[in-house]
Amino acid sequence: AQTVTQSQPEMSVQEAETVTLSCTYDTSESDYYLFWYKQPPSRQMILVIRQEAYKQQNATENRFSVNFQKAAKSFSLKISDSQLGDAAMYFCAYRSGATNKLIFGTGTLLAVQP
Amino acid sequence: DTAVSQTPKYLVTQMGNDKSIKCEQNLGHDTMYWYKQDSKKFLKIMFSYNNKELIINETVPNRFSPKSPDKAHLNLHINSLELGDSAVYFCASSPTSINEQFFGPGTRLTVL
C-alpha cells in the first residue's frame, strides 16, 4: 500500500524568505501523480502544484516549485518570497495512475512571520 | 459560479440521528469523491463515484451510504450517528480519473 509522510508538523518562515516543506512517499508503482494542497483557516482545499511521475522536470507555479527526486521518493515544496497569505496547512498527496484516490500526508502547518 | 458546493456547511446533531450532506459540482466532471478530515486534520478517502457508479469504497461503516442521483451530485447519508463521526467531510470532483481533484468547502459535522 502507498503511504505519504510529512515529517514536519509545523514550520515557520519570515515574510519574503524561502521555506521548504518535506514530503516522502512509498510506492512500488511507476505511474503516479503527486500534489501539494493548501488548506488555509477557511478550510478550503486549494491545489498548489502537481507533478507527474513520468516527467523529470520539476513543476513550478509562480513562487511555488517542487524538488521531485523519484529514486529517493521525495517531493518537497519550496515557497519563495513567502507572503502572509501563504500561512496555512500544506498537504502532500499521492495518486496512483491505476486508481483515482488521493492518499494524503499528515500535513505541515506553515506560519509566516511579518 | 461555485464549482463544487456542499450543503450544509455546518451540521450539529445528536447521537443516534440520521443526517445527509449534499454535494453538487457544475464543472461537468465524471468522478466525485467523499473524504473525511478528522480532528487531527488527517484526510482519508471514503468513496468515489464515476458516472454514478461506485468505484471506491474504503473501509467505512455501513452506516455511511453515498448516493449519486446523477453525474453532478453525490450525497452522503449517515445513519445512527456516533460521536466518532464528528469531522469535516469534503466532497471533491475530477474530470477524469487521472486529473487533480477540486474540493468543496467542507461540511463540519458535530455529533453531541
Task: Describe the protein.
The complex is a heterodimer of chains A (114) and B (112). Chain A has strands spanning 3-5, 10-14, 19-21, 24-26, 32-39, 46-52, 60-61, 64-69, 74-79, 88-96, 102-104, 108-113. With 114 residues, chain A is mainly β. In chain A, the strands form three sheets. In chain A, strands 2, 5, 6, 10, 11 and 12 form a six-stranded mixed beta sheet that branches. A four-stranded antiparallel beta sheet of chain A has the order 3-9-8-7, with no helix packed on it. In chain A, a hairpin with a 4-residue loop joins strand 8 (64-69) and strand 9. Chain A is globular and about 45 Å long. The N and C termini of chain A lie far apart (41 Å). By secondary structure, chain B is mostly beta strands. Helices cover 0% and strands 56% of the residues of chain B. Chain B is built from no helices and eleven strands. Chain B has strands at 4-7, 10-13, 19-25, 31-37, 43-50, 53-57, 64-70, 73-78, 87-94, 102-103, 107-111. In chain B, strands 2, 4, 5, 6, 9, 10 and 11 form a seven-stranded mixed beta sheet that branches. In chain B, strand 7 (64-70) and strand 8 form a beta hairpin. Chain B is globular and about 35 Å long. At the A-B interface, strand 5, strand 6, strand 10 and strand 11 of A face strand 4, strand 5, strand 9 and strand 10 of B.
How would the blueprint of this fold be written?
The complex is a heterodimer of chains A (114) and B (112).
Chain A: E1 3-5, E2 10-14, E3 19-21, E4 24-26, E5 32-39, E6 46-52, E7 60-61, E8 64-69, E9 74-79, E10 88-96, E11 102-104, E12 108-113
Parallel strand pairs in A: 2-12
Antiparallel strand pairs in A: 1-4, 3-9, 5-6, 5-10, 7-8, 8-9, 10-11, 10-12
Chain B: E1 4-7, E2 10-13, E3 19-25, E4 31-37, E5 43-50, E6 53-57, E7 64-70, E8 73-78, E9 87-94, E10 102-103, E11 107-111
Parallel strand pairs in B: 2-11
Antiparallel strand pairs in B: 1-3, 3-8, 4-5, 4-9, 5-6, 7-8, 9-10, 9-11
